[in-house]
Amino acid sequence: MRKYPKMICMTAIMAAMLALSGCGKKEQNKKEQVSVEEYQQVTYDTELVVRGNIEPTLELKLKANDYEKKIYYPALNEMEVQSVNVSVGDTVSKGTVMVEFKSGELGDQIEEYRTRVAEDELLLDHYNRLAQIDTATDYSNDIQAIKDDMEIARLYMNELEARLEGYNIVAEGNGVVSIISEILDYGIVDAQDGVITVKYATGEFSTTTSDDYEFKLGDVFTATFGMASLDMELIDIEESGTDADGNTIRNLTFKALSDDGSVSSYDTMYMNIEKTALKDVVYVPKDAVMEIDEKFYVYVMDDRNMRHGVEVTVGDTAGGYTVIKKGLSEGDKVVID
Fold it and tell me: Quick one: CATH architecture of 58-66+200-274?
């Protein structure tokens, strides 16, 4: 085996060490800097535990049930439009004249008979006075002839007025104008043309709730629409399962006790029902209470702003608050989830 002088071996070793040392320095320079995030303090939404009265209100949003629609047609062919008295969205009541058609001579004839009746009334009054003054003369035949003429004139006038009604389109009830046909713009319409559509409300409104309020058929509540209000009677209660918390879901139907037509223009009404008040109780927002393995807990913040769980005994939940029977005191600070 060939041997090398010790000097040569040491030189080679030192060269190798220097080479390794250089490589390590380059690798170290390539290392990225490690950034450390600043400390972030965790904050919680909190509420104070309160002692007092809970006066809950059940708020219901009622939606109108299906509407009935009525399409109105002209009475005759080739009727000439005189005026359209309503617009889409207008509320109409029974008897509202929505469209008028030109009646030609009918109006003039009615006015003639109306004048004739008025003249006969004056003439009749004149003969009645004569009969009182001149008792020797018999005016009975004249008086009867005037009465007969008035009766005939009234009959003709009533017949013409009945015909004239066909020259108007009149609302049959309380509702809302939903469609006005563009054909009215042409000025001439026929009997098969649906010119006006009115939406008539049934007066029934429905809502769904899982609240435990004790509803009874026949109960009357006040609902609001816009700036007005209306009494509503509960006419139907139907259960339709349970919600995520196990509460029974009920579908409620209310009927308007009276409707002057104004309610027909609204498809949404609101009802606030005052529930039984809970007197002198300790309570927290219901979102502060957690249920774990059939036990109830809240997080309480201590003087050092550290939270820790506390087991509590709960009572009723009403108006978004839960009564705490045991485990908390007035003024405690609880965390809201």
Answer: Beta Barrel (2.40)
